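Protein Record: Sequence and Backbone Structure Tokens
======================================================

Structure line: whole-number tokens from a learned vocabulary of local backbone shapes, matched to residues.

Purpose: to set a sequence beside its fold so the mapping can be learned.

___
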Amino acid sequence: MASHRRPKQPSRTRVTVLTATAAAAVALTSQAAQAAPKPSKDQVKAKTDTLYEQAEKATEEYDGAKDKQKKLEKEIADLQDKVARGQGDLNTLRDGLGSLASAQYRTGGIDPSVQLFLSSDPDDYLDKASTLDQLSAQQIEQLKKVQEKQRVLAQQRQEASTKLKDLADTRTELGKKKKEVQAKLGQAQKLLNTLTAQEKAALAAKEERASRASARSVMGDTKPASGRAGAAFQSAQTKIGTPYVYSASGPSSFDCSGLTSWAYAQAGVSIPRTSQAQANIGTRIYSQSDLQVGDLVFFFGDLHHVGLYAGNGQILHAPRTGTVVRYESMSTIGGPFEFGVRV
């Protein structure tokens, strides 16, 4: 028979202890919340600037991997095309050798050495030099062509296989870098969401005033842009106000090296896609006073940011996520000026 005992009620002492514990936990949580005040808009900006800088560094690495992927895909396609054509040439050579053997058979039987070749690797045959005197000069030449074609094909297939593995590794790296960029941007956006609309507007207004001041300084520069650098700079000026988007290279959005590579392309000059690669394409200029309008200018020790020199200590660049192509003082980039490059 089932028991009908009334369940034991918790003692008054135990209820009192649990209530006190819960109250203490609430009090500690409240104290912790009070101990971590909301960061000011300037603190938020400083933190988001750091995150954006880290995202830009990862973006340049992402751009480099994407550029490498594009080159590898083209190289692999070219190699595969060569292999296909080479296999066709090899088949033609073999058909020709077979025709020689058929003709020889009709006139008195297939030479034993030719028969050996047709059923085995020609390398194996040619190693048996003692049999060469049994072939005609035409057959020897044909065999050597087949052997060379097979060697080239084997080398091209191996090269294509190596590049395919490299491509797979590059695609894996691309995925990692993309996640890294998105994570940094997500953290920055989460911080910005803690600001009020008024605080966001104040930060935007401050950046706009700085950009206008830089533009006025550029307009007062007495050194006009000229040549290819001048043409590139003028093209970049037409994109002022265009949004920054990571890994974008125009014409409706840009990242930093996307803007510089696009601008020079409009001037008829092809330069590499990433800032690190762009740093190695011309004459380096280490003194800011020697820079000319249109020179590439690089910042941070790892060179992950690049812009175009605009004169009077200003640059024209695509700064970071949340901004647009604009003028800015070199002193406010957030990292040290490393050098310029005259393309």
Summary: Strands lie at 283-285, 296-299, 305-311, 314-317, 326-329, 337-342. The first helix runs from residue 12 to 35. The first strand starts at residue 283 and ends at 285.
